[in-house]
Known about the structure:
This is BACK domain-containing protein. This protein has helices at residues 9-18, 22-34, 36-39, 43-46, 50-57, 67-80, 82-85, 89-93, 103-112, 114-117, 120-134, 139-142, and strands spanning 156-160, 163-164, 168-169, 173-177, 182-186, 197-201, 204-211, 216-224, 229-233, 265-269, 274-276. The chain is α+β, with helices and mostly antiparallel strands. It has twelve helices and eleven strands.
Amino acid sequence: xIQLDAGNCIGISRFAETYGCxxxxxxxxxxxxxxxxxxxxTEEFLELTRAELDEIVSNDxxxxxxxxxxxxxxxxWIKYDLTERQQYLAQLLHCVRLPLLSxxxxxxxxxxxHLIRDDHACKHLLNEALKYxxxxxxxxxxxxxxxxxxxxxxxxxxxVGGKAGLFATLESVERWDPDSxxxxxxxxxxxxxxxLGVVVLAGELYALGGYDGQYYLQSVEKYGPKLKEWQPVxxxxxxxxxxxxxxxxxxxxxxTSQQNRAGNLICQFGAITYEVNKELR
Length: 281
């Protein structure tokens, strides 16, 4: 049985394709997509051909927290052999879901990234992405030029806070992985919270307000999957629990939370999306 890892999966994928090992080819492709952020740090990734790279970063199932990871991977590949590869930049930039990048990130690329700044075709793509942010009434027409479809990263369920019995309020977070059908603990929140609001923004999970067993809360904390820790953010102006919430973002609106009978919130967590309770969208 071949043991795949970030350092050998591309080489094994090439072997499988050369010798017509269909099942192995599918397995390595799935592994590369699921572990893209580790794979793109390897020497094998930097030695990909342009066609191989194009196929990987175009994949809808690429498991990335944000499209920034895809851009930085492409940039590293270009810089590995700048003289030969710079000509492919605009073509590869089409594989990045540019409208899903923030205005701040796009502006920084436009102004400070010399690879982008010196390439007319790249600047045009960034202009189109910025129009998507600033001219929402024309978004349908931009979808024919730039892809706005979120990546379909592997999803898990999160149970965030809630109550255990009549009085005990929880700060714990648990994650269910549908592939392995197992639950595992995630880092605890700083405060106990039931009837809280949970939402995702820019790939980070936010816990808002709620009730800690004594007081209604106005505090907010966020969980960063990369850092694997909860951090406090600015509190709300008023204490809240059992409330609706949304995100003002370029993606379709995030889900409005609903409380289940135990007071927990069950969230489905993908790269940047959540689905709450009965798979509300």
